[in-house]
Amino acid sequence: MTFNFPPQFIWGSATAGHQVEGNNMNNDFWAEEHAEGSPYKDRSGDAIDHYRLYEKDIALMASLGLKAYRFSIEWSKIEPEQGEYSNSAIEHYRGVLEACHKYGITPVVAMHHFSSPKWLMRLGGWASPEIPELFSQYCEVVFRELGHLIPYTLTMNEVNLPVMLREVFSSIGFIPPVGIERDAWVAPKWRESAAQLCGTTADKYFTFHMISDEKSIKILKEAHKKAREVIKGIAPDTKVGFSMALSDIQSISGGEELAEKKWQSYFGQFEDMIAEDDFFGLQNYTRETYGPEGQVAPTEGTELTQMGYVYCPEALGNVIRKVKQAVSIPIMITEHGVATANDERRVEFIRRSLEGVQSCLNEGIDIIGYLHWSTFDNFEWNSGYSMQFGLIEVDRTTQERKVKESARYLGRIAQMNALVTK
């Protein structure tokens, strides 16, 4: 049986600058990797050398049948020092965008994906009241040069993740979606060292992942609003949104109230950011189950991914339905994937998840695209290179790309614009 998707449905995959480009030496994550006592399992280093190999990579995506590529622009490359903009970096990203259009790939551009310039930390980071102006100025520079090449943009990736990080670390052993371990998050010494490497002190060091209090969330919301206004003023045809990491929040008897509080914390408190956007970026990897005492550990025998998440393809459809209750604009699935060395399980994950997407479409929910995380096995933050999310394997000794069956499977779906269940 074949399920057909709407015409113009966006099929593709996603990466983030710091995870694939290599040698992003001028941002806060580079500092954290190199800090004394750093909990990062690896340093990003050359990563998968995508900064140099992007055109070959984009051509490979197109040859597989993929139709879209979501990537991020690295702020620290565009603006290595406050108010100083790099023409060579702008021209690099022009090349990336032009390569996308050359190979028939729709670019979806994230203006911020976790990493920030070191100089921003010297101003107080994402707790600084200057953030909305600074971030929108960076967006303005990029869009004046490149806006005509960008049909879709996310101002920021996973704006709610810092709240999730703060809350889930009270649950022993739970690893949040970005892959930062609980003990590492609360250990102060390495953050002091990272602050020094950014040229500042720990009291000013406030990264994107620390935006979880009322004051900093308010600053983040204003930054999104101001950036959106700037982008639409320059490139009115560009569709603007942001993305959120959303697990499928479930409950057992007695856990209903706590589950509802978690959803409000993870999603509800950010709803006011969405109203004037063009689309909503939904990102899902797993489900979370709550009982009267808190999050319930998976039962024995439950399949877990490399990240320790419950393997739950059906979570995607459940989250789409829940988001739709509050969102009237189109939904784009801007990340969705599974960390596993068994690519057959990834193929199964894609198939079952897309059956859920198709069901949501049949219910009349406006879903405009599906972007799989990730295009490549890449640098997964605190977890280093140990997690295998990619549709394409990379031999980092030679930087050779090795296509997995999951990439071919998703490419066939994209080419047919249909999900073949057999």
* Beta fraction: 15-25%
CATH homologous superfamily designation: Glycosidases
Biggest sheet, spatial arrangement of strands: 6-5-4-3-2-13-12-9-7
Instruction: Write down the overall geometry.
Output: globular
GO cellular component, one term: cytosol
Keywords: Glycosidase, Hydrolase
GO molecular function: beta-glucosidase activity
Organism: Metabacillus litoralis
Which helices and strands, and how do they pair?
Blueprint: E1 2-4, E2 10-14, H1 17-20, H2 28-34, H3 50-64, E3 68-72, H4 75-78, H5 87-102, E4 106-110, H6 118-122, H7 131-146, E5 152-154, H8 161-168, H9 182-186, H10 188-197, H11 214-234, E6 239-241, E7 243-245, E8 248-251, H12 256-266, E9 280-284, E10 287-291, E11 294-295, H13 315-324, E12 331-336, H14 343-362, E13 367-373, E14 392-395, E15 400-403, H15 405-416, E16 418-420
Parallel strand pairs: 2-3, 2-13, 3-4, 4-5, 5-6, 7-9, 8-10, 9-12, 12-13
Antiparallel strand pairs: 1-16, 10-11, 14-15
Helix pairs in contact: 2-10, 3-5, 7-11, 13-14, 14-15
Give an overview of the whole structure.
The protein has 422 residues and is an alpha/beta fold. The chain has one domain (2-420): Glycosidases (TIM Barrel, Alpha-Beta Barrel), CATH 3.20.20.80. It is built from 15 helices and 16 strands. The chain has a nine-stranded parallel beta sheet with strand order 6-5-4-3-2-13-12-9-7. It has a three-stranded mixed beta sheet with strand order 8-10-11. β10 (287-291) and β11 (294-295) form a beta hairpin. The longest helix is centred in the middle third of the chain and has 21 residues, at 214-234. Mean pLDDT is 94; it is low at 170-177.
